[in-house]
C-alpha cells in the first residue's frame, strides 16, 4: 500500500516544518504565529527544491538533460531566465497520468531511525 509510505514522507516534512518553526520562535520571539509559519514554510520549500534539483532530477532525467534544459542549480549567482508571464500550472493530462510516476517510485519499506537512534525497517 503506497498510502502509508506517502503519508510517511508527508509527516517527515510536517515535522521538519514544526522543528524549524520552534527554532525560529526562539530566535525571533516577537514574530507572530503567521510569520513563523510562513518563514518555516519557505525554508521547507527551499529544502525540497534543493533535494529535487540537486539529487532527484539528475538521477531521473540525467545530468546532460539537466544542463541542456537549464535545470542544474548554480553554485553562485543567479539567472535572468525567470518569466513572470509563464503559466506554472500543470495540464490535466500531467495531473492524471504523468504525476502518478512519483507515487510509483515509493518503496515498499523504508529504514527510519527511532527515538533511540536505532534504524528500524517500516
UniProtKB/TrEMBL annotation:
SUPFAM superfamilies, A to Z: Heme-dependent peroxidases
EC number: 1.11.1.7
Presence of the UniProt keyword Oxidoreductase in the record: yes
GO terms, biological process: response to oxidative stress
An MF annotation (GO) of this entry: metal ion binding
Pfam family, one: An_peroxidase
Main location: secreted
GO CC term, one of those recorded: extracellular region
Binding-site list for heme b: 103
UniProt KW keywords: Glycoprotein, Heme, Iron, Metal-binding, Oxidoreductase, Peroxidase, Secreted
Location in the cell: Secreted
UniProt protein name: Chorion peroxidase
InterPro entries the UniProt entry points to: Haem_peroxidase_animal (IPR019791), Haem_peroxidase_sf (IPR010255), Haem_peroxidase_sf_animal (IPR037120)
Origin organism lineage: Eukaryota, Metazoa, Ecdysozoa, Arthropoda, Hexapoda
Keyword Manganese attributed: no
Amino acid at each position: 500500500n503506497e498510502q502509508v509510505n506517502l503519508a510517511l514522507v508527508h509527516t517527515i516534512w510536517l515535522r521538519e516544518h514544526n522543528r524549524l518553526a520552534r527554532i525560529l520562535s526562539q530566535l525571533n520571539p516577537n514574530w507572530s504565529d503567521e510569520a513563523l509559519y510562513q518563514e518555516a514554510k519557505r525554508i521547507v520549500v527551499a529544502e525540497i527544491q534543493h533535494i529535487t534539483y540537486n539529487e532527484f532530477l539528475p538521477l531521473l532525467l540525467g545530468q546532460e538533460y539537466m544542463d541542456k534544459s537549464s535545470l542544474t542549480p548554480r553554485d553562485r549567482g543567479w539567472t535572468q531566465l525567470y518569466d513572470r508571464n509563464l503559466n506554472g500550472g500543470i495540464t490535466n493530462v500531467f495531473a492524471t497520468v504523468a504525476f502518478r510516476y512519483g507515487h510509483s517510485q515509493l518503496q515498499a519499506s523504508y529504514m527510519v531511525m527511532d527515538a533511540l537512534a536505532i534504524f528500524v525497517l517500516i
